[in-house]
Amino acid sequence: MPDLETFAQLFAAEHKADPYPRYRTWREQAPVTELAPGFLVVSGLAEATGVVRDPAFGHPRPEVVPLADRHPDDLVDDEGRPVVSFLGLNPPDHTRLRRLVSKAFTPRTIEQLRPRIEAITARLISELLEAGTADLMTALAAPLPVEVISELLGVPTADRSRFAEWSHALARALDPAFLVADSVLEEAAVAGREFNAYFRLLAAERRRTPGEDLLSDLVAVTDQGDKLTEAELLVTLTLLLVAGHETTTNLIGNGVLALLRHDGLASLGPDGSSAERAVEEVLRYDSPVQLTSRVALHPTTVGGLPVPAGTQAIVLIGAANRDPATHPSPDTFDPTREPTRHLAFGQGIHFCLGAPLARLEGRTALRALARRTPALTLADTPSWNPTTTMRGLSKLPVSVR
Fold first, then answer.
1. Other C-beta atoms within 10 Å of 202: how many?
2. Angle, CA 240 vertex, CA 94 and CA 155 arms, to 5°
3. Rounded CA gap, 261 and 245, in Å?
4. Residues 367, 368, 374, 379, CA torsion sign
5. Which of 6, 47, 81, 342 can pair with 2 through a Cys bridge, CB separation 3.0 to 4.6 Å?
6. What is the domain partition of the chain in residue ranges?
7. pLDDT attached to residue 234
8. What is the mean pLDDT of residues 372-389?
């Protein structure tokens, strides 16, 4: 039987560029694997979908942080438990918070961003064309979502460079505990406190003088008299930062790399008309989010295996999205593929609230690149970030000449 050490090898540095052959071997051996009593790894798509949709699975309640271990700026409730975003909550708390945030984060809000997303993309690609060679991550993939989420929240232009630093530090701490060094957790804690301090001040300003931005809406949103507390507001903003920046940056970078390694950007057509399908294929083929976890709140089953309450299940999204039972020729990247089911944005009650925004930014970036840089090529070997939960490139050297 595989053990935790064998499982950890899936994420070793030497496999970072292409973890999928090992994912395939793992999935073929068993779509549900018990590593130890109370610890499952789920790699088959049907089984993984079952876990994320099964109400018997959820998230454990955060443990009380001893007073001696608390930082004065930590967000804790009256019992001393860390306040977490709705992504880490179960109903009815999840239902309440998601409903409040959804009232501000509407499809209309996203659609209104389209002209700005297109304008930002056009400007960044013009700068890329002028340079001739560049790192696509720093030239387009990273700055586009940072500018978009900043404008969405009404963050002043001068403060936006700090966003990427906070986002990277917070994203590194999302990996499973056995893969995260203490130094990474401390850096994330510092970034979180700095982020919270900044938004406490900005939220207070929006309460005094509301603007035409999402932060003003979140500050004011109500549901039958219910409002977000300050701690709930801050953890929601942290979620929007990481989900709105890191995942979309990775979607664009992973997508461009996949296209360049196959038939190039020209395969999207002269007008980039295949960009929508290409985005769905990137989400399936090289998902920006590679894994998630749940805990069995009640006894249940996964793939016919009895699961006692308290069991932790790690869902390998990257493996499930290449399950041949659902995706024919799953290891082939085909930007014209008819969209199929994938778990890149989750399923069920925790389906990603920001999925429409990520898709819009991804489509816009790929379409604009296909139209304006159809001959884009790799200029050197890409480099990958060390993170596991979030899969993305640190460098993607390209040439437009």
1. 19
2. 135
3. 24
4. negative
5. 6
6. 4-399
7. 93
8. 94
Reported as a single tens digit per residue, the pLDDT across 288-310 is 999 999 999 999 999 989 999 99
Taking 3-state DSSP, the helix, strand and coil percentages for the chain, each rounded to the nearest 5, stand at 55, 10, 35
Interval 59-111: pLDDT, tens = 999 999 888 888 888 888 888 999 999 989 999 999 999 999 998 888 888 88
Quick check: helix, strand or coil at residue 151?
helix
Distinct helix (H) and strand (E) counts, the chain: 15, 12
The tokens describing 351, both together, are 């389906």
Q: Helix, strand or coil for residue 6?
A: helix
Q: Which residue has the tokens 């906070």?
A: 166
What is the DSSP secondary structure assignment for residue 328, as one 8-state letter? S
Amino acid identity at 23: Y
Residue with tokens 């992973």: 254
CATH second-level architecture of 4-399? Orthogonal Bundle (1.10)
112, 215, 102, 67: which is closest to 155 by C-alpha? 215
Give the pair of three-digit tokens for residue 130: 């002028």
> Tokens 């942290």, residue?
238
Instruction: Kindly state the average pLDDT of the residues 368-394.
Output: 95
